[in-house]
Amino acid sequence: MSPMHNEHDPQTTPPSDPWSPPAAPDQPAQLLPSWSFDDAPAERPAAAQAAASPASAAPQQTSWTQNPVADQPASTPTMPTALETPQPGRRGPGWLGVTAMVAAGMVLSSGVTLGGVLTYDALTAEHEQPTASATAASDQPPIQPVASRQNVDWTAVAQKVSAGTVAIRVQDGDSSSQGTGVVSSTDGTIVTNNHVVGSAKTAQVTFTSGLTYSATVIGTDPSTDIAVLRLDKPPKNLTPLTFGDSSRMSVGESVMAVGTPLGLDNTVTTGIISAVDRPVTAGGKDGDASETTYTSALQTDAAINPGNSGGPLVNAAGEVIGINSSIAALPGQGSSAGSIGLGFAIPSNTVTMIADQLVSTGRVQHAFLGVTTQDAQATSGDVTYTGAKVVDVVPDSAAQDAGFQTDDLVTAVDDVPVDGAAGLTGIVRGLPVGSEHTVTVLRDGKETSLTVTLSTRP
User: Fold this and answer.
1) N or C: which terminus of the chain carries fewer CB neighbours within 10 A?
2) Within 238-317, where are the H helices?
3) For 102-124, what is each residue's pLDDT tens digit?
4) Catalytic residue among 16, 109, 309, 335
5) How far apart are CA 419 and CA 378, in angstroms?
6) Active-site residue among 195, 221, 277, 335?
7) Of these residues, 38, 221, 225, 265, which one is catalytic?
């Protein structure tokens, strides 16, 4: 967590937490070569509305591994080499789709020297999109055009957010790394990824002006991959960025990623939100399973590469709606292949929830459901349900109080579909302690709604 909490060093397997990834022997997501890794939220499509028979073990997912612990999947899923992948509660493919083609890797850069010609998008103009027209019958209402990205003044957005985006360079022992950060307060507070700072206690922060300041790490949370720094002597003209409401983002909305890919400061790229609530699992450095993170992330096709970690993903209004953390890569290519249009960001609502706690106490309290789960499926007639099967309920936990039972198949939390144990873990980690939620489970072939108030993870 934080140097104070000493949770950033090799993370230990999350405490028994009934919300966890599925039990399936797989390897943790890989880090980006000589940069770093990231993880992303996990979600799954909504459960089909129909009764189903007792849940049966679902087919093993592509290299996703998890450790059996309460509030975590019985096993930790392994994503193909790439950065995290967010998944919407029904607005995008689930874990299966992501794990089949992605391997998580950090988007951190470390001591990289650019040679030859490397090209990265530096957005300075709007991109026109072809407009479509259609002929409607005289008795039909006219077709209403949909606003396109050409209506967004990205030049203005880039100018608005550049002053609040910084390059972070860390020297940790004999190794050095580089990432990006977001200025969140005039007192010099900066939010970034946990994997950017690692176990370091200090960092060097460079602004677009070219001026560099020293900073101290005041808190880290490996389980959500969030870290907070503070400038030792902040300048008086800091321009904090505004954090927006990530829950309001929809698939197709335009976004811009800002960061320091491969050491190229002040690089911006644009794209759209490809999916929301995307379940993403990423392992620690060198495949350290103890640092595996689970996220219900925002997925974007805006180019994200090593060095973008910790940087902002902003909407058309210039509000931070996510912190870029990971990318996906084709099997066998590893994160060194760079962006393939599958990037993941930790939702801003999760970021602020964690960062606020790190700023105030240096520690983080995580929500706890109180169940151990594994990936599973159940069928009823012609309908097949996929979700997180409950294999154990922790005594005196929120789950037990809510009436969870062994063999229940969790298919949704509120209106967000759950496609597996890891997806469930990612969703819960993004929720606040004490919040109340409706969980849909399949029990004895029938869907049942349970109301649960999340407690604090032991």
Assistant:
1) C
2) none
3) 333 444 444 333 332 222 222 22
4) 309
5) 12
6) 195
7) 225
Cα dihedral sign, 267-323-275-92: positive
Contact 418, 389 (CB under 8 A): no
**DSSP string spanning 382-404?**
TEEEEEEEEEEE-TTSHHHHHT-
Give 53-83 as a DSSP string.
PSPEEPPPPTT--B--BTTBBSSB----SSS
pLDDT score at 17: 40
Count other Cβ atoms within 10 Å, centred on residue 372: 28
Burial of 406 (0-12, 13-18, 19+ CB in 10 A): exposed
Count of positions (residues) in the chain: 458
For this structure, is 225 an active site residue?
Answer: yes
Say how many C-beta atoms besides its own lie within 10 A of residue 360's C-beta. 9
pTM: 0.72
Using only C-alpha atoms, the chain has a radius of gyration, in whole angstroms, of 21
pLDDT, tens digit, 9 for 90 and up, residues 414-452: 989 999 999 999 999 999 999 999 999 999 989 999 999
